[in-house]
């Protein structure tokens, strides 16, 4: 190819002279013009490629000035080792020097530094080694007051305050309270819900709409501790009002049913109100057998079953702790005259499952019936029927459909059943059509009681 067909350059620099100068510095003296021009064009192509990539970084950074950092990033993208020693933290000033006619040299004017001054300067501090650590930004919506978290400035309405103290000798250093801030919308929502639930003149349609909103609306997770606190306070102050107690259980039911709420961290806060209404001594004005009085305990038992079924695998101590509380209420002699407590304890044990009835209730059934039913003259006929009904439901949990196919129970088996559970329970079981199936299930469970099982209570 003729030398005239080779284009020198697209820029103002002299490619032929520059390539020849570099070649001479490397010891190459006789470099042909054709080679120098071709190398110059390739170098210019590479420079344009680097500048195009650098301009992309500049534009994405929303800047109009190209910096040395942009050039360095462009070189990294193109798999070229970047240049070192150039800092873009300060503006680069170019100086101009004229070497001859039409020959201008641009250079960076370096600052003059006193070498002796640099030698006598103190050495900089050794930087710390790189390390990583983790901390809780927030726990259950509350930001812990630790040094890693920013200090909360200002006041937050409707905020949950937690003062954290750090013991220092005899004194206690009280840190700033941790505030749980709620948005204005959530505050207004919570206030409106509380007003409607506590307003006795509010129609049932409005209350049902409020409960439906709690059970279905998204974005209510931050209000869960406030709802639980509201329910607990209402139950504590309205134990003589079964209607209010039933309404509070409906609030708990809807919180548990809302699919957008992560309720697991609050299970241990929900259990005390449920157990209070399940085995509490006084629900309502008197302990008479009113439908509302027993409805509250039945609803509490159903919520207990819902919680134990859904969250027992997450909290392994949930069932044993609840069972211990119910068994204490069931076997406490001081509460034997409180039929509501006995009814609630049996309802709760039935809600946990048949294994509890088999292991914990059957062995104590004879003595319990003798104390609670036989020797309790204050128990009314309707209370006796209610208590007997829930006891039968507990025993029916033990019935296996395969046992019904076996041969009928003989007199010896019935006598053995009576010796095991006592005459009072035998008369109760004999009064129902499926008495034989219940007796066979109880006798079979008696045989299994000594066998090792998977139920343990600590």
Structural notes for this entry:
With 458 residues, the chain is mainly α. The protein has 18 helices and six strands. Among the domains are: 106 residues, Histone, subunit A (Orthogonal Bundle); 186 residues, Serine Threonine Protein Phosphatase 5, Tetratricopeptide repeat (Alpha Horseshoe). Helix content is 53%, strand content 5%. Strands 1-2 form a two-stranded antiparallel sheet. The chain has a two-stranded antiparallel sheet with strand order 3-6. Helix 1 crosses helix 2, helix 10 runs parallel beside helix 12 and helix 16 crosses helix 18. The protein is elongated.
Summary?
This protein has 458 residues and is mostly helical. The protein contains 18 helices and six strands.
Proper CATH architecture of the domain at 263-448: Alpha Horseshoe
Q: Order of helices and strands, N to C?
A: HHHEEHEEEEHHHHHHHHHHHHHH
Would you state the CATH class of the domain at 263-448?
A: Mainly Alpha
Poorly predicted ranges (pLDDT <50, ≥5 residues)? 1-6, 154-170, 451-458
Q: How many individual β-strands?
A: 6
The value of Rg in angstroms is 42 Å
SSE-based structural type:
mainly alpha
Write down the overall geometry.
Answer: elongated
Counted by DSSP, the helix tally is 18
Largest sheet: 2 strands, antiparallel
Sheet with the most strands: spatial strand order: 1-2
Distance between the termini: 96 Å
CATH topology of the domain at 263-448: Serine Threonine Protein Phosphatase 5, Tetratricopeptide repeat
Task: Indicate the mean pLDDT.
Answer: 80
Report helical residue fraction. Answer: 40-55%
Beta fraction of the residues? 5-15%
